Structure formats: structure tokens, C-alpha cells
UniProtKB/TrEMBL annotation:
PROSITE patterns: DEGV. This is DegV family EDD domain-containing protein. Keywords: Lipid-binding. It comes from Holdemania massiliensis. The keyword Secreted does not apply. Gene3D superfamilies: 3.30.1180.10, 3.40.50.10170. The lineage of its organism: Bacteria, Bacillati, Bacillota, Erysipelotrichia, Erysipelotrichales. SUPFAM superfamilies: DAK1/DegV-like. It comes from the Bacteria. One of its GO terms (molecular function) is lipid binding.
Length: 280
């Protein structure tokens, strides 16, 4: 049996890349008032961040329905393919639960659903490994098993301009968000057991870069057999200093990814981030 890999749009793989890599992508949605947009399809990244910063009211996001996943599952079922599904952290969204419900409706045995416990470039690390394993001839069961093990080593670090968006979107408490309210302070966030937490804060560019390194030393350094991925929200310039800094530390990767509208709704523009697989 061949294997079909399906993910959701918060993995931030472009439609062109998804076609090239033979991936199924189920979109989440972003709503500005009554206007609904499918993540990664109906708005370009530039258009989204322009709307985000020019609107007084924060947009909302919504998970895919079980039927959205079921449509993809039925295609694979008809083709006689096994299925591996990789979703956004279940602690941040009901996307994983929608995929589980769709599996029940589909009544098709070889569907393996992996909760990444991560988001955006963190999930994308796992997706890249899933593609490699698929292309090496691994079964869906084997791929899912290895992803379950590898996800425990995924680390994502992000410096944000403000925690305002995370607090307004309900992803962070007001008390935790207080650290980001001081002028010139750049809070650093991560995902721990699938949930957002604040690791620390720094004032100014140089101190922020040093905080990245300090946290990497604390949490575990990258296993460079897996290419790290750099991420940004809004303008790529936000992450260029981090790329240069890591290059000087011999952590080099060509993988740079813009973060899309669903995650960007909750972080705002100006984020710089790195995701990597920790050394075992």
C-alpha cells in the first residue's frame, strides 16, 4: 500500500509545495468579522498581515470540521492508500479531535493520526520527516510510530514583539502576558507539552539573540542530522538577525518559513523563531 500524508494548514506548507510533495492539506479558517478566509488559500500572507494590523478588532480562527478531514480520507480510501495525519497541537485547537471523528465516520482501518503537540514550523519538522520516511517505503504504521517518538524532541523558540495577541486570543493568561507590556521587551515563548508558555524576556535585539542561545543550551541543542527551520510573521526581515546569529554558531539551515494566518492571528507580526529536533 502507498501512503498518503495529510496535515492541516497551520503546518504552513504552501499549496504549490503541497502539490509537489503529494500532501493533503486541510485548511483552518480565519474570520475578520463576517468575512471568512481559508488559511493559506484565500489570503496571501502579505494581505493577511496588512488586514491584521489595520483592523481594530482581532480576527478569530476556527478548526476544520470532521467532514473536511473526511473528504481527504475518502480520497485515500478510494485509492487504497494508507493514511498518516499530522495535526496542530490538541492543546491549542480542536483540529486533532476533528480528525479523530472523521476517522470514526470513514470506517477505514489504516488511518494513523499524530497529535504533533506543536505548531507551524515545529509541526513542519515532523512533516518533513514523515515525507522522508514515506519516500523510503515505510508503512503508515511505521511512520506514525516514529513521529510519536520524534515529537518529544521538537523544540520551538519564538521571540514576539508583544504578548497582546496571545492574551486577546485566549492562548495566554493576562498575568503571563504582563511581561510583554513593557516598552522594548521581547518575550520568548515555547510550546511545552503542546501548550504555550513564556520562557523569559529580553530588552533589545542583542539580548534577545542571547536569550535564544541560553534557552537552547538549557533545553537541549539541535541534532543537525535534521535541518532546523527558521520562521517569521509578517516580514522576513524579522528573522534575518536570528539566521545570521545562528550561522555564527554553526547552526545553519536554508529552511525559512513564513508563518500563516491562523498562528499569526495569535502572535501578531514581528516574530522571529527557530524550530529544531533536540539531540537524543
Amino acid at each position: 500500500m502507498t501512503v498518503r500524508i495529510i496535515t492541516d494548514s497551520t503546518t504552513d506548507v504552501t499549496p504549490a509545495a503541497a502539490r509537489q510533495l503529494n500532501l493533503g492539506v486541510v485548511p483552518l479558517k480565519v474570520l475578520f468579522g463576517q468575512e471568512e478566509y481559508r488559511d493559506g488559500i484565500d489570503l496571501t500572507m502579505e494581505e493577511f498581515y496588512t488586514k491584521l494590523t489595520s483592523n481594530d478588532q482581532l480576527p478569530t480562527t476556527s478548526q476544520p470540521s470532521p467532514n473536511d478531514f473526511l473528504t481527504e480520507f475518502e480520497k485515500a480510501k478510494a485509492a487504497g492508500e494508507e493514511i498518516v495525519v499530522l495535526t496542530l497541537s490538541s492543546q491549542l485547537s480542536g483540529t486533532y479531535q476533528s480528525a479523530q471523528l472523521a476517522k470514526d465516520y470513514c470506517e477505514y482501518e489504516p488511518i494513523y493520526i499524530v497529535d504533533s503537540l506543536s505548531a507551524t514550523i515545529g509541526t513542519q519538522l515532523l512533516l518533513r520527516e514523515a515525507i522522508r520516511l514515506r519516500d523510503a517505503g515505510q508503512s503508515a504504521s511505521q511512520i506514525a510510530q516514529q513521529l510519536e517518538q520524534l515529537k518529544e524532541r521538537v523544540t520551538i523558540l519564538a521571540a514576539v514583539d508583544t504578548l497582546e495577541y496571545l492574551v486577546k486570543g485566549g492562548r495566554l493568561s493576562k498575568a503571563a502576558g504582563f511581561a510583554g507590556s513593557l516598552l522594548g521587551i521581547h518575550p520568548m515563548i515555547t510550546l511545552a507539552e503542546g501548550k504555550i508558555s513564556v520562557l523569559g524576556k529580553a530588552r533589545g535585539k542583542k539580548a534577545t539573540l542571547q536569550l535564544f542561545w541560553q534557552q537552547m543550551e538549557k533545553l537541549g541543542m539541535p541534532d543537525l542530522t535534521f535541518e532546523p527551520i527558521f520562521g517569521y510573521t509578517g516580514n522576513r526581515e524579522a528573522v534575518e538577525d536570528l539566521i545570521t546569529f545562528m550561522d555564527e554558531k554553526a547552526i545553519v539551515s536554508p529552511q525559512v518559513c513564513g508563518v500563516g494566518s491562523v498562528i499569526g492571528t495569535h502572535t501578531g507580526p514581528g516574530v522571529s523563531a527557530i524550530a529544531y529536533i533536540r539531540q537524543a
